[in-house]
Amino acid sequence: MFFRIFSLCVFFAAPALGWWCEGHETVALVAGKHLSPAASAAVAKLLKDYPALTPRACKDSQTDPMAIASTWADDVKKSEKTGSWHYMDIPLGLKKGDPEEYCVPIGPSVNGGERPGCILSALRSAVNILHSEKESDEEKATALRYLIHLVGDLHQPLHTTSNNDQGGNCTPVQFFDEPKVSNLHSLWDGMVFNRDLAGKKETVNQLADRIDQEHASKRAGWVKNAPEFDKWAWEGHLIAQKVSYGDLEPKPPVEKLDPKAECSVERDRFGALHITAGDAYEKEAAPVIEEQLAKGGYRLAEILNIIWP
What is 21-307's CATH number? Predict the structure, then answer.
């Protein structure tokens, strides 16, 4: 698994993080509403006793401990060399198969480089640590912060899909009349979400309350047999095919996945298509994004309730 390098050049409208601050915070806030008393107490104690010392990149608009913890894994992915833990590259166009083919187990770094792993192996590792009686509480607090974040990432469809474009990072998209051309990944990480949030004049906390109410009837079905990380990865992958890429105008051609593909080459190739996303795309994408955030929150809570029944 190669390390996905997120470009910081002015081409991109914003940092390519898995859901921006508001998305991860929403997942955490929804989850917090459905924790068992035991899970709620355990989560609160670990996060209080072993707080993250890394400065938080997201503005301090939250007081909820889980919401604050939800973005920590992005803050440390360079220093901890865990960038590859946040995604997996299932090829666009693939409709069935074994997701393990696109994942490697977590292991030690080689010569100080990137630590191997993918989002599936990282999630399993976090759950195993939290279940273990041998791990220290400090290690469990770290695993908990990874779990909170990565469950959110798993529900961002472009974190389980690639078209030789690093999950949409190398596919230029003109979003409405934004002054700079953005990229598909940024649209799904936050641009669509934040535009919709601003249009509804909602805070993140209000959004979490609303989507929890709107999707409450689906919760039982969504959390059945949790955790099913492989299934959830495919679920997001199919959403990426149908909506994330499928509703673009024009649709980019499906490419055979090449681990050696260069972002600059793919960016030029897809840029020549002059892909746009406006009202029609937002209308399709926004409710899907909200549903994914609700799913992520419900499923995160269910995992924690299983660990601390």
Answer: 1.10.575.10
